[in-house]
């Protein structure tokens, strides 16, 4: 005899009745004013039972892509260039112009991330409470202003303060863009689109190297290192103004979509992801859930391991390449192949994860990329310092696969580059290797945890009929639109 379930959503829990009861969906819906529903819920419920033609959904997706992705692409490109401006300026007199000594330059890398960490909570809170498109646009404008003022810094205290505020403002970019991805795209659509803007790290490495090479040929006017910040700051300021005009906040209010297209944009994401699109209400119990969630500690450890090598490929690339024995101009154009490796690996990885979302492609891609990074870091540690500059340079390029293996922002890496160890930086390369190994281990553990959670929920559901399965899926979607987390919403499944 086929057993069925009685599913009830009360805004906080998904309940399953014992086997043998009649299949029934019962919802106790809080009002929008209560803050327990998604900001797009009213529009979603208004047309919930309407059929959506697949062709129509594709047309809406194309409109979203054309509006959202170019803005994300350009903004992410510029934020990577901006935070790494000191890397390009370091070989053109930045240290002399700002009177840096000893570990001062390394501290500039760390201080940026002090500001980044300080900005995480207020940025997250403000993105939830305010209109996200306008908020991110304003932060882009402000960090452009901060960059333009960098040439006015004449000592360590001044440029350290400047870097802190740059990190504070840029802290909104990564979480903000991830939030935008979850608002506008299904889980299956996200990898390629996320990597398409994330690959700008590689493009920025190439583009920044070309700008650095061009700046190296300036022989008149102000000091050459100042041009780097003036150019990048002006570009960011312009980008922020364009974003303020074009970047939408929510599907339900997007001016470039018709009323029906707004519903389609909401429905397709809610149905596929089984999660809230965006809620402006902060819930304390959801924050406390993170303290009991093993993923919190796995991702934190992964972030610590990821940032150690990340600093080598941002603030210290020019210095590292110079330490291999290449000329000042060579330190700029020899960063271009590394950027190309990063860009290509991200696009290929994003395509594979989008093309094969149900084949555990995300974790497999991350494991492969981190393994390549381990090989590169091991070569940097093992190859002799002298008479092997090309071998060491190729090893450094291999480390640019790290963006595909997942990358975070933190502050520990710059301190591994000790001025007393120049030009060998042995401790830094060992730290890079250890960081990659830690990150790989955390990816494997996270994969095992999420895989076992999915299997456990499948066993608990024990659905045996297509009709019942459809009802449970509807209940899971409704639970998600009531801002239920993946921990409470037992209809949620991790995509691996």
What is the fold's blueprint, element by element?
Layout: E1 6-9, E2 14-16, E3 24-27, H1 41-46, H2 54-83, H3 85-89, H4 94-97, H5 104-129, H6 132-148, H7 156-170, H8 173-184, H9 190-198, H10 200-215, H11 224-246, H12 259-273, H13 284-292, H14 294-312, H15 317-323, H16 330-333, H17 336-355, H18 361-382, H19 389-398, H20 426-461, H21 466-481
Parallel strand pairs: 1-3
Antiparallel strand pairs: 1-2
Folded structure, characterized:
The chain is mainly α and 496 residues long. Helix content is 65%, strand content 2%. The chain has 21 helices and three strands. It has helices at residues 41-46, 54-83, 85-89, 94-97, 104-129, 132-148, 156-170, 173-184, 190-198, 200-215, 224-246, 259-273, 284-292, 294-312, 317-323, 330-333, 336-355, 361-382, 389-398, 426-461, 466-481; strands spanning 6-9, 14-16, 24-27. Strands 2-1-3 form a three-stranded mixed beta sheet, with helices on one face. A hairpin with a 4-residue loop joins strand 1 (6-9) and strand 2. It is globular, with a radius of gyration of 24 Å. The two termini are 34 Å apart. The model is unreliable at 1-34 and 464-468 (pLDDT under 50).
Question: How would you sum up this structure in a few lines?
Answer:
With 496 residues, this protein is mainly alpha-helical. It has 21 helices and 3 strands. The longest helix is centred in the C-terminal third of the chain and has 36 residues, at 426-461.
């Amino acid at each position: 005899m086929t057993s069925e379930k009685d599913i009830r959503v009360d805004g906080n829990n998904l309940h399953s009745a014992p086997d043998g009861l009649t299949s029934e969906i019962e919802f106790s819906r809080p009002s929008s004013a209560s803050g327990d529903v998604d900001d797009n819920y009213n529009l979603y419920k208004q047309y919930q039972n309407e059929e959506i033609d697949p062709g129509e959904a594709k047309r809406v997706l194309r409109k979203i892509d054309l509006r959202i992705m170019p803005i994300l692409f350009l903004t992410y490109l510029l934020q990577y260039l901006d935070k790494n401006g000191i890397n390009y300026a370091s070989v053109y007199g930045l240290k002399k112009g700002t009177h840096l000594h000893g570990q001062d330059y390394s501290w500039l890398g760390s201080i940026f991330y002090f500001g980044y960490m300080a900005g995480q909570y207020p940025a997250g809170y403000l993105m939830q409470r305010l209109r996200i498109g306008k908020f991110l646009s304003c932060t882009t404008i402000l960090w452009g202003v901060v960059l333009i003022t960098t040439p006015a810094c004449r000592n360590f205290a001044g440029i350290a303060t400047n870097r802190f505020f740059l990190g504070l403002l840029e802290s909104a970019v990564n979480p903000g863009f991830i939030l935008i991805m979850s608002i506008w795209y299904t889980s299956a659509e996200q990898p390629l689109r996320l990597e398409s803007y994330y690959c700008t790290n590689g493009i920025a490495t190439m583009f920044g190297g070309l700008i650095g090479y061009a700046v190296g040929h300036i022989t008149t006017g102000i000091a050459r290192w100042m041009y780097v910040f003036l150019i990048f700051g002006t570009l960011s300021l312009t980008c922020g103004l364009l974003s303020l005009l074009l970047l939408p906040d929510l599907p339900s209010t997007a001016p470039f979509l018709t009323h029906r297209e707004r519903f389609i944009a909401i429905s397709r994401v809610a149905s596929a992801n089984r999660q809230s699109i965006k809620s402006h209400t902060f819930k304390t119990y959801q924050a406390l859930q993170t303290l009991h969630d093993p993923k919190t500690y796995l991702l934190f450890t992964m972030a610590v391991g990821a940032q150690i090598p990340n600093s080598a490929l941002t603030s210290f690339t020019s210095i590292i390449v110079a330490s291999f024995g290449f000329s000042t101009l060579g330190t700029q154009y020899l960063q271009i192949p590394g950027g190309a490796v990063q860009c290509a690996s991200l696009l290929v990885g994003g395509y594979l994860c989008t093309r094969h979302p149900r084949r555990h492609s995300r974790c497999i891609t991350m494991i492969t990329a981190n393994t390549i990074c381990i090989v590169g870091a091991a070569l940097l540690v093992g190859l002799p310092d002298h008479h092997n500059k090309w071998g060491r340079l190729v090893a450094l390029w291999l480390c640019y696969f790290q963006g595909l293996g997942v990358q975070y922002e933190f502050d520990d890496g710059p301190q591994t580059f000790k001025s007393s160890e120049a030009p060998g930086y042995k401790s830094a390369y060992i730290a890079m290797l250890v960081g990659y190994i830690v990150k790989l281990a955390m990816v494997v553990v996270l994969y095992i945890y999420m895989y076992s959670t999915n299997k456990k929920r499948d066993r608990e559901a024990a659905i045996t009929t297509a009709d019942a399965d459809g009802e449970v899926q509807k209940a899971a979607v409704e639970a998600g639109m009531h801002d239920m987390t993946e921990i409470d919403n037992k209809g949620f499944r991790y995509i691996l």
